[in-house]
């Protein structure tokens, strides 16, 4: 069997249906596998999400870090600052844009990135395929372009070029959930190069961070 990354497949963006506890288990398995790989190569540790309120600015800054590196950062309204609690949530589109603004955005787009973006787009829109002219189509085209052997490194398409306006480009959007994080992480893992390299992890980490932040919001709402 070839060790080369395979093209994005339809099955990558349609994980088997599962109850909430099954989705959590799947996500934990993916993240545990990633953590083990990360510890072996010493590049980074597990994902950590912190929230900092800035009441005077009427916002909350949510930061996801791994191994000392910022993987994603979101700015959302602070409840009570003239904004309903329900708006204090991060959408999949916003998570994709956040990935573009971190160090992951500087990387050339590869097949794992394209698979992760396709999974995210599908979860956001609920549509059964790639949206023509959408972020997934752009990511796939970028990955194929970057595979050209005659293309210089500085000419390659970066993740930030594809995801910089993701929230505006998506024809539909939704609040990120753990189930979305599972789908994106699984797609990235299936299409990651055999030798590692972090393909798709920036997108997967951003969606996972958004899902965790949203889950915390829901917990606070139930406890209120």
Automatic annotation (TrEMBL):
Q: Where is this region: Disordered?
A: 1-59
Q: Which organism is it from?
A: Triticum aestivum
Q: Which keywords does this Swiss-Prot/TrEMBL entry list?
A: Repeat
Q: Where is the SMP domain?
A: 90-148, 157-216
Q: Does the keyword Repeat apply?
A: yes
User: Basic and acidic residues compositional bias: what residue ranges?
Assistant: 21-57
Q: Which family does it belong to?
A: Belongs to the LEA type SMP family.
Per its record, how is this protein called by name?
SMP domain-containing protein
Is Glycoprotein one of the keywords?
no
Q: Which InterPro entries match?
A: LEA_SMP (IPR042971), LEA_SMP_dom (IPR007011)
């Amino acid at each position: 069997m070839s060790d080369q990354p395979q093209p994005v497949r339809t099955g990558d963006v349609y994980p088997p249906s599962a109850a909430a506890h099954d989705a959590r288990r799947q996500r934990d398995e993916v993240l545990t596998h990633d953590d083990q790989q990360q510890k072996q190569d010493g590049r980074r540790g597990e994902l950590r999400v912190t929230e900092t309120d800035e009441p005077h600015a009427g916002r909350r800054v949510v930061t996801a870090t791994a191994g000392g590196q910022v993987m994603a950062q979101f700015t959302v309204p602070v409840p009570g600052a003239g904004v309903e609690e329900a708006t204090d949530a991060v959408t999949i589109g916003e998570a994709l844009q956040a990935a573009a603004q971190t160090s992951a955005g500087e990387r050339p787009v590869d097949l794992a990135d394209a698979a992760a973006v396709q999974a995210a787009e599908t979860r956001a829109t609920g549509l059964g395929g790639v949206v023509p002219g959408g972020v997934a189509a752009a990511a796939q085209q970028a990955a194929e372009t970057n595979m050209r052997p005659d293309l210089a490194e500085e000419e390659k398409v970066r993740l930030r070029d594809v995801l910089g306006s993701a929230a505006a480009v998506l024809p539909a959007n939704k609040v990120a959930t753990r189930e979305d994080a599972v789908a994106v992480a699984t797609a990235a893992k299936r299409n990651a190069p055999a030798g590692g390299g972090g393909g798709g992890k920036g997108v997967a980490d951003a969606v996972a961070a958004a899902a965790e932040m949203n889950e915390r919001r829901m917990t606070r709402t139930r406890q209120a």
